[in-house]
């Protein structure tokens, strides 16, 4: 059988056939897992922190039932249908680990756990820190990450009792009930060569204090869960 590569193998039709086969979720997840694991091993990457985030991509496409392009919430152009992309990447390196594509009408909240599960299977280690925006702060997502032995860092959404709690935490700080401390950041000067990189002096980026609270989850299908959660109340951002 002739297996030589010809010019016609690079046509749009052949590319469409290849993409159709790769679009199978099981096939694509296997490729992502294999590629990520081997890249981490080849470059001897130490993964301690992962960032999760979702975005939308809009375009002039026809809407079809069950299709990827659908109307949904968007920060850019709400008049265009969109597809939603959830990504998980090594932080701060930015190397993608997981890319999940879903239809544009889906909410972000439900995308974090599937992405987390896929990343956990790829990295196969505990004690990782998962960083995300306020949409990752849903109780179910935080509970899932905690139960699996990992950690989370995200701003709390101002829903439920959070606004009331935040107001009381700020009042306590103003009343001087808790000592305030600085949050500092140290970074490297990337404008120089790798062998000559210099550490930039620490810079204060926030001022506030920390409280600890018990988080309890009651689910009729699961044992009662309770863990200690650290909350940082930022009063000043510099």
Describe the structure in your own words:
By secondary structure, the protein is α/β, with parallel strands linked by helices. It folds into 2 domains: 19-150, Transposase Inhibitor Protein From Tn5, Chain A, domain 1; 158-238, no CATH class. The chain is 26% helix and 31% strand. The protein contains 5 helices and 8 strands; from the N terminus they run ααβββαβαβαβββ. It has a 5-stranded mixed β-sheet. Helix 4 (139-147) links the parallel strand 4 (129-131) and strand 5 (151-153). Helix 2 (25-42) packs across helix 3. The chain is globular, with a radius of gyration of 22 Å.
CATH H level, superfamily name of the largest domain: Transposase Inhibitor Protein From Tn5, Chain A, domain 1
Strand order of the largest sheet: 3-2-1-4-5
Average pLDDT, rounded to a whole number, is 86
Query: What's the β-strand tally?
Result: 8
Annotation keywords:
alpha/beta, 2 domains, 5-stranded mixed sheet
Short note summarizing the structure:
The chain has 238 residues and is an alpha/beta fold.
Chain-wise SSE layout:
Layout: H1 12-22, H2 25-42, E1 49-58, E2 82-90, E3 96-103, H3 112-123, E4 129-131, H4 139-147, E5 151-153, H5 162-174, E6 181-188, E7 199-217, E8 225-237
């Amino acid at each position: 059988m002739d297996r030589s590569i010809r010019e016609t193998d690079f046509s749009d039709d052949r590319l469409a056939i290849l993409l159709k086969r790769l679009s199978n979720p099981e096939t694509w997840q296997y490729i992502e897992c294999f590629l990520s694991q081997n890249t981490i091993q080849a470059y001897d990457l130490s993964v301690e922190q992962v960032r999760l985030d979702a975005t939308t991509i809009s375009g002039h496409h026809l809407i079809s039932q069950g299709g990827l392009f659908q109307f949904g919430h968007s920060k850019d152009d709400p008049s265009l249908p969109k597809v939603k992309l959830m990504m998980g990447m090594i932080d701060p390196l930015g190397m993608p680990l997981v890319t999940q594509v879903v239809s544009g009408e889906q909410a972000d909240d439900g995308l974090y756990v599937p992405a987390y599960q896929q990343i956990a299977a790829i990295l196969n280690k505990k004690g990782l820190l998962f960083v995300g925006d306020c949409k990752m702060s849903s109780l179910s997502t935080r509970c899932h990450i905690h139960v699996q032995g990992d950690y989370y860092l995200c701003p709390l959404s101002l829903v439920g009792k959070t606004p009331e709690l935040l107001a009381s935490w700020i009042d306590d700080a103003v009343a001087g009930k808790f000592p305030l401390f600085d949050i500092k950041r140290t970074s490297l000067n990337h404008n120089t060569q790798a062998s000559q990189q210099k550490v930039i002096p620490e810079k204060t980026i926030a001022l506030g204090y920390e409280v600890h609270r018990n988080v309890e989850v009651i689910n009729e299908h699961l044992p009662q869960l309770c863990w200690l959660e650290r909350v940082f109340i930022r009063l000043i951002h510099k």
